[in-house]
Amino acid sequence: MEQQAVVQQNQNDLPDIGELESMVGILLAEARAQGAGSAEAAVSVDNGLSVTVRLGDVETLEYHRDHGLGITVYFGQRKASASTSDFSRKSLRETVEAACAIARYTSEDRYAGLADADRMARDIPDLDLYHPWPIGVETAIETTRRCEAAARDVDARISNSEGATLATHQGLRVYGNTHGFMGGYPSTRHSLSCSMIGEESGQMQRDYWYTVARNKDGLQAPEVVGRIAAERTLQRLGARPVATCDVPVVFSAEAAGGLFGHFVAAVRGGNLYRKSSFLLDQLGKPVFPAFVHIHEEPTIKNGLGSAAFDAEGVETVAHDLIRDGVLQSYVLDSYSARKLGMQTTGNAGGVHNLIIDPGAMALPDLLREMGRGLLVTELMGQGINMVTGDYSRGAAGFWVEQGEIRFPVEEITIAGNLRDMFRQVVAIGNDVDLRGNIRTGSVLIERMTIAGQ
């Protein structure tokens, strides 16, 4: 019960990393004792505070603390996993027993197993990911109220609020395997968001804004977040559909991240070995125009997607996915790499800081380059066929004439094929959105179909 007591005694802080390493070591030793040829285990502890204020009143106040562990065992090429949130020594032993019992009945899979030992991370650098924010509840409420109040004060047409939310999170995860690898580090993530409702001539619109960072000092001021949320809401008043047409489209930076998220999904190992990707067999072939450079930079200091090793302990390294428009690399973990006869790219668990190099133009320049077309600022629905690349999603944004925004647009659908859309990228803006794991500016695409009136 000693391990359980450690977690309970530190409800406001993370436990010492050595305590979690000890638990991982116990899990791995127990797996060996029960006959597993190899094993991997992870233990995590997370806590945080979230406050939502709506119309000046506290709507929700939540403190959360989560912890859990998981073990995966291999008996030859037979694999099984088990997990628990009970950190007692008895529970650790029983969790390993459960995994081992399952493994004895699973089928052989010749691709199963730990990542290769020579790919384990050797040195784990400090990536500056841990900046706890010991904010008190009263201060959190006051900060959130300031954010919402700033939004409501912008204009009388701001008629209602969906609230402002402040959230702070800190976590610690340790991973180890029977290759002898053991690694872990704490991390933090803080955010402030605001969503407002505007009304004019009987029409209502909503929009939002948010800021997120590892360090609270990287957040925008509450008044700035509220003001931007209100201004974005006001800009959407008077929105209407447009007639069905084929025109150029600019995806704003916050919308463009999803576009490149579809690219990552198309080159992910699981979709490739299942032959369910429109970019199957495209390695070494042009996928984007020659000016496009997409690369992964996993060890950016303070980065929201930074990690020194992936979910299998494999060292993460900077590498190109697209160089000169040509597909250079897939996104692979060890299992999918073996299925494809390749090597892992250190992407078990996903990509880490995917960067799309910006061009020289700001968003207004992209709109002038487009001339007449649609600026997309919000996307709805999930109309993506990963096998064919067919793309159809609800959208909202602004109609552009002669390079200038004319009026807001709603109740439309934009459609195309991702393979064509990638090849028809005309320019990438320098208004890079740094608030996520995919860093891109706005993207101008030569032509898409707008389904409206």
Structure write-up:
The N and C termini lie far apart (66 Å). It is built from ten helices and 17 strands. Helix content is 24%, strand content 36%. The protein has a six-stranded antiparallel sheet. The protein is α+β, with helices and mostly antiparallel strands. Residues 1-11 have low confidence and may be disordered. A hairpin with a 2-residue loop joins strand 9 (319-323) and strand 10 (326-327). Helix 4 (137-152) packs parallel to helix 5. The chain folds into two domains: 2-235, 2-Layer Sandwich (PmbA/TldD fold); 239-453, no CATH class.
List the helices and strands and how they pair.
Elements (H helix, E strand, L loop, with lengths): L1 H8 L7 H17 L4 E17 L2 E19 L2 E7 L4 H15 L33 H16 L5 E20 L4 E19 L2 E11 L8 H14 L9 E7 L1 H14 L2 H5 L20 E3 L22 E5 L2 E2 L6 H6 L14 E3 L6 H8 L2 E8 L9 E12 L2 E14 H6 L1 E4 L9 E2 L3 E9 L2
Parallel strand pairs: 7-12, 11-16
Antiparallel strand pairs: 1-2, 1-4, 2-3, 4-5, 5-6, 7-17, 8-9, 8-11, 9-10, 12-13, 13-14, 14-17, 15-17
Helix pairs in contact: 2-3, 4-5
Helix content: 10-25%
Q: Any idea what the shape is?
A: globular
Quickly count the helices.
10
CATH fold naming of the largest domain: PmbA/TldD fold
Total strands: 17
Which structural class do you get from the secondary structure elements?
alpha+beta
> Mean pLDDT, rounded to whole units?
95
Write a compact overview of the structure shown.
With 453 residues, the chain is an alpha+beta fold. The protein has helices spanning 2-9, 17-33, 89-103, 137-152, 222-235, 253-266, 269-273, 334-339, 363-370, 418-423, and strands at residues 38-54, 57-75, 78-84, 158-177, 182-200, 203-213, 245-251, 294-296, 319-323, 326-327, 354-356, 373-380, 390-401, 404-417, 425-428, 438-439, 443-451.
